[in-house]
Structure formats: C-alpha cells, structure tokens
Amino acid sequence: MAKALFAIFGDPVSHSKSPLMHNLAFKGLDHDACYTRYRLEEGSKLKEKFFSLGLKGINITVPHKTHAYAACDVLDPFAKKVGAVNTIVEKEGKLYGYNTDAPGFLRAISEFENINTVLFLGAGGTAQSTAVILKEAGYAVTLLNRSAERLEKFKAQGFSTFTFESFPTPLPSSYDLVINMTSAGLEEETLPAPRNILDAVIPRAKACVDVIYGKETPFLKLAKSYKKPVKDGSDMLLYQGIIAFEYFSGNRYTFEQIKTYMEKAFTL
Ligand code: NDP
C-alpha cells in the first residue's frame, strides 16, 4: 500500500511548522506516512486539490478555514457549531471535518490554575472558536475589540463585549486571565489595546497569554514587566497539532506519546 500522505493548505504556507511537527511524530512513532505543505491560492478549489494530490488528511490555515468547512461531507458537532475547520480526514471517499484549534487552546490555558474569568483582546476567527469552547468549559469570557463590527456575533451568543471606547474605567471587576487574540505584535511592535486599558487589567490578572508564537510580543513584554506568569502561542500550536494527529492516525496513539515526538519541533 502507498504511504499515506498528509499536508497543510494555506496561503502563505512556507512559514508553517506543521510539516516538521507531524513528520517528527510519524517518524518517532514509526507510522508509515508523511506530511507536506501546499500553497492553495483559491479556497474554492480545496476539495478538488485534496483528491488530485491523493491526500489522506490535511490541516488548513489562513485564509481557508471557512472554505474547509464548506468542503466537508461530515462535520464534527463542535466544528459545525463554530463554523471553522482546521483538520480534514478522508474516509471512504468522504471528507470529515474537525476543529482542533479550540481544544488545543483550552488545553494550553488549563495549565493555569484557579482561572474563572477571561478577557479576550480581539474578536477575530481564532477568538470565535476559542470563546465558545471556553464558555462550554465554564469560563466567563469577555471580549474587548478595536472595532464594534466584529463584536456583534459574540453579543448575539451571549458574551459580554466592549470596544476600546465602551470599556469601563475604573474596572468594575478583574479578569483572571488576559489573552491577546489579535495579530497586533505579529509583524509590528504594537500593543493589542490602548496602554491605559492594559495598565488597568494586567496588574489584577493572575496570568497573561498571547496566541502569537515564536517571539516575545509587546503585550507579553508588558505582562512580564508586571511580573505576571506568561505563555505564548506555542503550546496552542503544539496541542492543536497533537489532536489533529490523533485524527490522522485513527486514535492509535495517546496524546502523551504524540507529544514526546512532536514537541521536538520547538527545540530544533
Ligand atoms: P483575524 O484576522 O480573524 O482577526 C484579527 C483580530 O485582531 C481582530 O479582532 C482585529 O480587530 C484585531 N487586530 C488586528 N490588528 C490590531 C491592532 N493593531 N490593534 C488592535 N487589534 C488588532 O485573525 P485570527 O483570529 O485568524 O488570528 C489572530 C491571531 O491568532 C494571529 O496573530 C494568528 O497568528 C494567531 N493564531 C495562533 C495560532 C496558534 O496556534 N498559536 C492559531 C491561529 C491563530 P478589528 O476587528 O478592529 O480589526
């Protein structure tokens, strides 16, 4: 039988760590498969490309998570609820879609103890699936975003939402965890919210998290200056990859077995 082939679809995709992560796990676990990257320019061609490349499964990154959702024949209930798919597995000619970003994120923040209230800075695509999974896990999630527009759908789902202008100061309550869910700090050295708001919420937080990985963002620098425990987006990336690998391998290995090999991608 031919070796099973997996890939990441995105645009751009050259920077992705996923091929390294999955190939380290396939090799370490002696699982006969390999993982490559494919720059997909037109999201509407996702299904056609999947089959023409003879793939068994894919991960999907920016900007194709909504196209990935539309391409699936069968959706996992959570992926269906949040409308975003980042993992697809082919079984008997049908595409099965899952969202592993949100459970990966939940696992990453579960490592902080005694957290009840969470403030999201940002309300984009990543905030959507992660806010829902955190709410289901019992956290009280509030969203603070630069523009009002993106907050509408969160408001409709019962979340507390604020723009920079409507955020109350002085703060009526504190937030145990403050999370940068924006792309501020990714390419430019910008903070995700006005300094006066961050100076009000960070000192009262138990910890701060950034979804950006591979660099210390201005937000994490500021949190460290307040001596707060911090975490960047590396664990989220690793954990979504491990959960995707569980689907790719038909749950043949435990989370910890996969982690042993996949986490080496962050030390190379
Ligand atoms: P989206 O484009 O869907 O949303 C971007 C969000 O960031 C919006 O809320 C936007 O606010 C806000 N924003 C952008 N620039 C600024 C700024 N300068 N100041 C304040 N707010 C800003 O992005 P995604 O949700 O897809 O991605 C968000 C981040 O998550 C990215 O940095 C991405 O790299 C990271 N990520 C990390 C993962 C991991 O595994 N670690 C996985 C997936 C994503 P507005 O509405 O006002 O425009």
Major beta sheet, specifics?
6 strands, mixed
Radius of gyration over all CA atoms, rounded:
19 Å
Strand portion: 15-25%
Q: Which cofactor or ligand species appear?
A: NADPH dihydro-nicotinamide-adenine-dinucleotide phosphate
Determine the fraction of residues in helical runs and give it as a percent range. 25-40%
Could you give the distance between the termini?
32 Å
- Tell me the total number of β-strands: 12
Find the structural class using helix and strand composition. Answer: alpha/beta
Which residue ranges are poorly predicted, with pLDDT under 50 across at least 5 consecutive positions? none
> What is the string of helix and strand elements?
EHEHEHEHEEHEHEHEEHEHEHH
Mean pLDDT: 96
Shape: globular
Oligomer, anyone? single chain
Number of helices: 11
Written description of the protein model:
- With 268 residues, this protein is of the alpha/beta class.
- It has helices at residues 18-28, 46-52, 65-71, 77-82, 101-109, 125-136, 152-156, 195-201, 218-225, 234-248, 255-262, and strands at residues 4-10, 33-39, 57-60, 74-75, 87-91, 94-98, 117-121, 140-145, 160-163, 177-180, 207-210, 230-231.
- The strands form two sheets. It has a six-stranded mixed β-sheet, sandwiched between helices. The chain has a six-stranded parallel β-sheet with strand order 9-8-7-10-11-12, with helices on both faces.
- The longest helix is centred in the last third of the chain and has 15 residues, at 234-248.
- The radius of gyration is 19 Å and the shape is globular.
- The protein binds NADPH dihydro-nicotinamide-adenine-dinucleotide phosphate.
- NADPH dihydro-nicotinamide-adenine-dinucleotide phosphate (NDP) is lined by residues 62, 101, 122-127, 145-147, 150, 181-184, 186, 190, 192, 211-213, 233, 236-237, 240.
- NADPH dihydro-nicotinamide-adenine-dinucleotide phosphate binds at residues 62, 101, 122-127, 145-147, 150, 181-184, 186, 190, 192, 211-213, 233, 236-237, 240.
